[in-house]
Amino acid sequence: HVPQGPVCTNLGLKPGQRLTVKGKVAPNAKSFVMNLGKDATLLGLHFNPRFDAHGDVNTIVCNSKKVEEWGAEHRETVFPFQKGGTAEITFSVNQSDVTVHLPGHQFTFPNRLNLSVFDYFDTQGDFTLQSLSWE
């Protein structure tokens, strides 16, 4: 059972805007998830840092989900997270993709569902949300 953190709806994030998430990683973290999308069934970005889960060690796995259908996994091997540490992640929404800003690293993930607005955000797993800001 994955602990569910706060769920935000009606965020209204549009291209040119960004969401900054700050929080704490659990001391014995295995993995955590941040989902960004239209709602819980249409996820434009499933962001899943894995310390040690599903055969992945210190890897960030990203994906998209349309109802029950997952897309192709995208893996990033840069892993700036520490167990028991704090994490700050910024998601910048662009017309055709989302740029994920991590400490010392950034990458883009395509907007496969062509979402014009990102209304939904949630966190799950070994992460405690401390603040959420968007501009």
Automatic annotation (TrEMBL):
Keywords of the record: Lectin
Pfam families: Gal-bind_lectin
Gene from which this protein is expressed: Leg4
InterPro entries: ConA-like_dom_sf (IPR013320), Galectin-like (IPR044156), Galectin_CRD (IPR001079)
Protein name: Galectin
PANTHER family: GALECTIN, GALECTIN-1
Galectin domain sequence ranges: 5-135
One annotated GO molecular function: laminin binding
Gene Ontology terms: cellular component: extracellular space
